[in-house]
Amino acid sequence: MINMMVCATMILLPQFYQGLMHYSASDTGIALSTRVFACVVLLFIGRICAMYDVRLVIGVGLFILATSIGMCMNLNLQVHPSWIVLSNVLFGIGSATALVPVSGIALGTLPKEKISSGAGIHSLTKCVTGSIATSLASSLTISLSQVHQTYLVKNMSQFNSNFQIHFSALKTGFLKYGSDILALKKANAALYHQLLVQSKLCAISDLFIVCTIMTFAVIPLVVLLKTEKG
After folding, report:
1. Which of 156, 174, 172 is nearest to 164 (CA)?
2. What is the pLDDT of residues 54-90, one digit of tens each?
C-alpha cells in the first residue's frame, strides 16, 4: 500500500503541477524533491524502532502519510507553493517512517535460509503494486475527467446567469483584438479550456480522496503484523 501511494502520487502531482499550474519540468522536479530532504528521518528510524514497538512506528508513519495525501484533496489553481512543499515534506517523512520498519519486519522475521527468497518476493511485490498504481492513476484521471466534464458542462447554459456574465465579459475583452465573430469564438474557446482544466482538477482531487481513505484504512491492520523472529 505504501508503494502504491508513492507511485500514484508521483503520477498525479506532475499532472497537477505541469498540466494545471503550468510549472516547468525543472520546477516540478524541485517541488517533488522536497520529499527526499524529509528522508533524513531514515538516520534515526533504527533508534526509534529500538525504543518503541515497530507496529506503533509503522502506524504513525501511515498516519503522517495519509495526512500528507489528504492535504491534496482540495487542491486549487491558487494554491501557495509553501503548501505544496509542506505536503511533500510530510509525505517523505511518513513514507520513510512506515516503509523501513515494514521492510524490516518482512525480512527480519524469516529464517536465514529464506531471506534471499523473501527479498525477491518483497521486490516483486513492490514492482507489481507500483505498476498497478501507476496504470490505475493514469487511466482513472482520464475517465474521471470525462465524468466531471459531463456534469460541469450543464452549467454552460444560457439559463445560467453566472455563465452569461462570465461569457459576456470574455467576449467584450476579446473585441479589442478582432471582429464580433472572432471574439465569440475566442470566448467559447477560453470557456472550453476552463472546463477541461476544472474537470481534470476535480478528477485529481477525487483520486487523492481515494488514496487518503485507502491509507487510513490500512492503519488498523498494522496490529496484525508479526514482529518476533522466525
Report:
1. 156
2. 888 889 999 999 999 999 888 888 888 888 888 888 8
- 168 and 42 in contact (C-beta within 8 Å)? no
Across residues 24-31, what is the average pLDDT?
86
DSSP one-letter string for the chain: -HHHHHHHHHHHHHIIIIIIS---HHHHHHHHHHHHHHGGGHHHHHHHHHHS-HHHHHHHHHHHHHHHHHTTTT--TT--HHHHHHHHHHHHHHHHHHHHHHHHHHHHTS-GGGHHHHHHHHHHHHHHHHHHHHHHHHHHHHHHHHHHHHHHGGGSSTT-HHHHHHHHHHHHHHGGGS-HHHHHHHHHHHHHHHHHHHHHHHHHHHHHHHHHHHHHHHGGGGGG---S--
pLDDT band for 228, please (50, 70, 90 cuts): low
Average pLDDT of 14-18?
A: 88
pTM: 0.83
Amino acid at 153: V
**Residue 206, exposed/middle/buried by CB under 10 A (0-12, 13-18, 19+)?**
middle
